[in-house]
Design goal:
About 15% of the residues lie in helices and about 35% in strands. The protein contains two helices and eight strands; from the N terminus they run E-E-H-E-E-H-E-E-E-E.
Length: about 150
Amino acid sequence: MTGDAEPVSRVPDGPWAGWLRWSDPVPGTFLDTSIGPSYSRGDGERRATVMLETLQSHANRNGALHGGFLAAFADHAYFAALAAVGRPEQAAAVTVDLSMQYCGSGEIGRPLRADVEILQETGRLFFMRLTLHQDDRMVAASTATVRKVPTPR
């Protein structure tokens, strides 16, 4: 099953005008049903901001953002950031490892911001980190290693 839509497109108007919108082109996948669309923009070749509107479906039983959701969004944000810094071909890359540090409780209904940085790039890997914030309050931090899509020879 494949979708026809491009996963990344520039938003023409509204509150996210000028940002890249990322949504899974395959309906019913994890990204489509559990996370939803995100919005990203690059800041040079190594940094990007990725935004997500939080929903009730992102909550834990206590009404805060679920830790598993935060980890899933962090994983997604690494790829959205790669697209935003001009590396959309890496959408098919894979996460080798990801760690999370939960720093506070996130609230439903407030946008979640991932500030993403590429720390190092080798021939096969990206070493990345991010912090997750709501307004000026840190919710979580993460580091990840991403295996690049091999370049055709």
